[in-house]
Model the fold of this input.
Amino acid sequence: MVDRSVFIQIFALIKTRMKQKFHFLFFLFIIGNFLYSQSPQLTKNSKISLLTCATGDALYSAFGHTAFRVQDSALGIDVVYNYGTFDFDQPNFYLNFTKGKMIYSLSRRSFEAFLYEYELEKRWVKEQILDLDLEQRNQLLAFFEHNYLPENRDYLYDPLLNNCSSITGDILKNQFGEAIVFDGSYLEKQYTFRQLVRQFMDVNTWAMFGIDLAFGSPVDRKATVKEHMFLPYYTMEQLRHTTLNGKPLVKRERTILDYNEHIHSSFFPLSPLFWFILLMAFTGIITYFDYKHKTRSRWLDFSLLFISGLAGTFLFLLWVAADHTSTPYNYNILWAFPVNVIVAFGLVFQENVPKWASKYLWVALGLIAIMLLLWIIKVQIFSPVLIPLLLTLAIRYLYMIRYSKL
Done:
């Protein structure tokens, strides 16, 4: 005969397990309701803060990162709204980036998952808790949740005017209007966009050289106080000098991950300046021997004209055919003249330099002189790394003009 107490204990155990399971399912339901339905109403325990993340080693992380964090211990919420999400596997990713049609998205993930990447890369993360009342916190959360809807989460990315950091100022202005005041008195001076980018990248690197080459004259205007916020470090500093209804917007700050700033050291023999100086010296030596032997190294002239023309064609297309706000009116095409591509083929198959080519080369030298004038009067600031490259072109242009008279 089986003891009834055994059945009672088994029944009690099943009941306890079912109760635990019910609580777990109820918890999942609450979380699911938060994640996939309308936003919940935050409690008085809630906080909304801005996260600023340190610069990284990859080019896309070279300027740091900014995101919003929403916490509510009573509701068990701790999520990050991240406007800096993109996918390398998107169809035509690199083509869209070149055309200025890059799509970024708002993502939402747990704070722990967000922090893991920065812990892995040993990049510091700092938090600024915003001094908002409960109504304002719920207002911001409703805005984030509305933005996170599938039809709203994507936006057209602009590296200088509409990125994960600059959108911070836009959101605050959009939500709180004139009550938000950005005080720019902390700035020593208002920098141009190019100057701001160069603060985070060494001019004598291939990445910065490429950026300088692609940037047109619009980036050489002074950024407004709010426009400085396209850089996360400036956004963090700006929030320290921002008021909401006359009171400081930031209630307090804390460091979540405490790591040293990443130091980006460069190796001169791998830098563009080293290779351009080498090219100038090489061109000078070849030109000297050409002069001595009264000949012309057609392969060198073809290479210089073709590559500079090809670069100019690409820059011209960025100017007229792309939607970037930073690449129009790029006067680098004065030295990297697109027509050089055609002239290169016109000179490579004949030893002599025809008269038309001589006149063209004088025009090309004149265009370089105009570019230097634009540099002096600061219509556009060019990369100083270009100087040996400009001298290289000038050496061969002058030699070809002289050779045409032999």
